[in-house]
Every structure is written in C-alpha cells, then in structure tokens.
Amino acid sequence: MSRNSLSVTTSRPLTSQTVGENGHAIPYATVACFGPTSLSANGVLVTQLLGEALALLDDDRLGARGCIERAHLLMQGQCRVAFPRKGMLADWQVRKTVHHIHGNLEGTLRMDEAAKLVNLSSGHFSRAFKVTTGLTYSQYVIRARVELAKHLLQTSSAAISEIALMCGLSDQPHLNRLFRRVVGLPPSSWRRRAPDPPLKAC
Length: 202
Prior knowledge:
This protein is mostly helical. The protein has helices spanning 28-32, 41-56, 61-76, 91-103, 111-117, 122-133, 137-155, 160-166, 172-183, 187-193; strands spanning 18-19, 25-26. It has one domain: Homeodomain-like (Arc Repressor Mutant, subunit A, Orthogonal Bundle). The chain contains ten helices and two strands. It has a two-stranded antiparallel ribbon. Strand 1 and strand 2 form a beta hairpin.
C-alpha cells in the first residue's frame, strides 16, 4: 500500500451502540470502524490516517508516525481537513448514508437506494462518496460487513457460515474472500488469534 493511498482498516473496539435511521440499535461492530467521529470530513480523514498508520506500522514506522501526528492535529483542530469541499457530501448526507449502511448490513445495500436517501443521482453520489470517504460505496460496505464479522467471530460461538449470513453475504466462501482481502487472513485463522473482547462496564 502506498503512503498516499489512505484506507480504513480497523479501529479500537467500542462497547456502546448507536441508533440507525429506522430507530433500531446498530450493533457494536458496525460502529467500530465508522464511529461517531468519522461522520464529518475531519473525522473521515482521521479514520483514514489511523488506518494508514496501522498498515505502515510494521514496515515504515516513520511513515506511520507521520499519519498519527496528522490525525492528532486534526483531532485538536490545529489543521484543516485536506479534502476539497467541492464535490463532497454534506455532513448530513454522510450521517444519513452511514446510518443506512450500519442499520442494514444483514441485507442488500444498493448504491442507488443510498443515493435516493440523500437526494442525489447515483452518479453524483458515487463520485461525492469517494471524494468524501476515500472509498467507493462498495468498498465502504464491504469493510463495514467485515468489521461486523470480526465482532461476531470474537464475541460469539456462531459458525462462520451463520456469521456470513448475518453480515449480508451469500455464504461462507463469500465471507472468506472478502475477509481475506481486507484483513489478510481467513475468518477461521483470525478467530483463533483474536484477543478477548473488552469487558462491559458494570
């Protein structure tokens, strides 16, 4: 991965839930990668910078440090977001889209339906989504599904085939392909290596 291609990989676990557009609670894992701080332009960039830092950490500690420092400055408000405003989704459109994705991971997530939710054509939405998040709509959905799968693998004893269906995927081989592409390991191997889930506060 090049130092200039920012991508979301993982984030620290969250123990809380959020509420989607339909009023239903969104599971922990669906906000683990795309949490509340990522619902603005600055938040999206911070998330991407941290993902890039994780990707660089083993082979390029200096590059990883630079990503972390930029993320820290953004969180402190000491530098402005690097994304151009022109062509981006508005914050309300990002929030509505993300909540729609998180609340419907078990089903089909069509881009044209997401575009209608924010009053845009599919073409305009596709371009604006990529400019705003650094990911295509399909990449974003895939990573959200993988984060949900990771949470379920870590916190339940469900079979991987069942987890695939819970994440809106057709079968276990489908989950295996996407999981390996994003994480670098098949789900079974990741489950064996996964740390214990965080304890819930009393």
